[in-house]
């Protein structure tokens, strides 16, 4: 057995080990997500959880991302591609900017009355 054969076998074994570890990682993430999702749903359905209405959990593996959202107000399940944000998220972003706009307008009006009153 030459050293060339040993090196090529090392590459094969290394690839098999990498494939095994990736499969194990996927399995662990799936099992952990099942446990976490069940826990989220149990917590929200508990009568004593009167202050919790929304529960989120994000899982990231490499470049893959999954977000679990449990909301007391919504029944059912929805799958959503994060690369295309939902209109609800877009609306919330716009609402945030509208709030900032009105805050700035209110500050300008208050400053106007302060300076108008000081000049009289």
What composes the largest sheet? 2 strands, antiparallel
Number of domains: 2
Strand order of the largest sheet: 1-2
What structural category characterises the helix and strand content?
A: alpha+beta
Strand percent estimate: 5-15%
- Radius of gyration based on Cα positions: 27 Å
Work out the number of β strands: 2
The rough form would be described as elongated
What multimeric state do the chains show?
Answer: single chain
Helix content: 55-70%
In the predicted model, the low-confidence regions spanning at least 5 consecutive residues are: 88-94
Q: How many helical stretches?
A: 2
Span of the ends, CA to CA = 102 Å
Order of helices and strands: HEEH
Report mean pLDDT, rounded to a whole number: 75
Give an account of the 3D structure.
- This protein has two domains: 1-84, no CATH class; 86-120.
- Helices cover 63% and strands 13% of the residues.
- It has helices at 3-45, 87-119; strands spanning 54-61, 64-71.
- The chain has a two-stranded antiparallel ribbon with strand order 1-2.
- A hairpin with a 2-residue loop joins β1 and β2.
- It is elongated.
- It starts with a helix and ends with a helix.
